[in-house]
Amino acid sequence: MTPVLLFGLAALFVLLTRRRTPGGRPVPGAAEVAGFDPGAYGLVPSAELDPGRGGPPMRLLRRKELEALADSCLAGGWRAAEAHVAAAGEDWDERWSRLDFLTRIAAERDEWLTAWEEAGTDRCAAATVRARLVVQRAWEARGGGLPAQVAPERAAAFRAQLAVAHELACRAAESDRRDPGPWVVMVAAARGMRLPRRRFRELWGEVVARAPHHVGGHWQAMQYWCAKWHGSDALMLRFAVRAVHGAPAGSPLPGLYLQALTELELRHGPGGLPGGRRYRELLPRVAAALDGTPAANDQVPLLRHLLAHFALLSRQPALALEQFRLIGPWCGAHPWSAAPNPVRAFDQARALAATLAAPLTGNGIGNGGGNGTEGANGTEGGRTVSGA
Q: How would you classify residue 328: left for phi > 0, otherwise alpha for psi between -120 and 50, otherwise beta?
């Protein structure tokens, strides 16, 4: 199937070549940005673009700390793992991130995890890692594809393993009634277990009672509400929009809206994205939230790629341009990585953003930032152009 990015760019090129700016000047099409000079817009040179990463590399000290932790675990130790989780305190998002890292280590070798479970010193953390590992292996055994495309025997084995994970997570929850992590595991398993909506809402209520803005929990819950599982496009989008409006300062949770748009685009192409001012105005709001998130948060660079893409599709080129400036040389992330040539796709998208933003804001460095909503309410064929 043609990657979603190509659908998006193709649709965008058609729209751009048919429309004029508010001042009456023709909007450049793809052929007219061939001589694009990134430096004129505060962007890194095209020759420096790196498709191998979605964002800057991890700080050296942090990388060495994680490598030492992994080495300790793989050598059979578990105390370093327990200390690593305990250091997160009641920052539940950070704790979840650390449990995720330990799950990836356990996927390589899990003898240390068994020893940790047997020691019984932090039953909740150890059992949560085990439950997450069972969920991961269940998905690996299931394979890819939509639910209707999975062979019956694989689907049955998948659900059986998820039931095991659910039981492990229940035990973890009994060990520490404060920690939302075990409940997030249950939410993650729910869609594959075919839990009815009433039961799912009960599980979700347990998550938000402990951590109302848990980022990982919201992502898992949004998957349940997808049309491909147990919801619909409208239910999924509504869930994501509520997350944007309810997110606290400093949280990357508003990025959930970008992930919901990605789900819609994958299912329907750019024409399936929501239109209307209400949805367009969410993108600047998401941008402000990402700007307020600590720089060390590794989710932010990946979310900026999505934000740049959807800002461009929704005719907010200055907003897209500002994201491209913040992204820098890293282009190894969705949606560009879905294209045959990620570097070219990324470079073309930022060229379009800069070229479209220039008539509205001027093309000098520093003049293309902000929310970039000027002249964005274009129409095509008598209707509002579908955008984010």
A: left
